[in-house]
Amino acid sequence: MSALLHSSSCFFFILSAYFVVLPLRDEGAISLGLSNLPGLFVGSFVLTLIAAPVSTLIFSLPDLSKVRALFFIHRVFSVLLVLFFILWHTSSMNTSEYHSKNSLGLSTELKVSIDQDSPIDSRGCPA
């Protein structure tokens, strides 16, 4: 009974963590641009293909206890999540600066074209 409760709780917490990180991952990917989305999904797939056999290999080491292997794998994945967050945060800051510069230029161009097409005074009222 204790093994059943332990495995059920581990499965519950792993799925809970996945469903917490999933929307953040998708939002982060979308904020980097839709053109980057296929590359990010391929990268995620490749990293999963690498991480699964490596974690299995770590668990199969005879001189490493299963508890220590579990703590090691959890710490590695925690550090990777923090690293990905830092990389996402710095790259999203760069793209937000780029988007804010473009949106400023677009609004200025739009205002100039509106000012040229219709007679509007400095207060924004029709003349």
Description:
- This is Ferric oxidoreductase domain-containing protein.
- The chain crosses the membrane at residues 6-25, 37-61, 67-88.
- Keywords: Membrane, Transmembrane, Transmembrane helix.
- It comes from Hibiscus sabdariffa (roselle).
- By secondary structure, the chain is mostly helical.
- It has a domain at 36-117.
- It is 83% helix and 0% strand.
- The chain is built from three helices and no strands.
- The protein has helices spanning 2-31, 37-59, 66-117.
- The termini are far apart.
Task: Jot down its keywords.
127 residues, mainly alpha, 3 helices, 0% strand, elongated, transmembrane
Strand-helix topology:
Elements: H1 2-31, H2 37-59, H3 66-117
- Element pattern in H and E: HHH
What's the β-strand tally?
A: 0
β-strand amount? under 5%
Classification by helices and strands: mainly alpha
Radius of gyration, taken over Cα atoms and rounded to an integer in Å:
25 Å
Largest sheet: none
Helix content: over 70%
Q: Give the uncertain stretches in residue-range form.
A: 102-110
The rough form would be described as elongated
Distance between the termini: 82 Å
So how many helices?
Answer: 3
Q: Summarize model confidence as the mean pLDDT.
A: 76
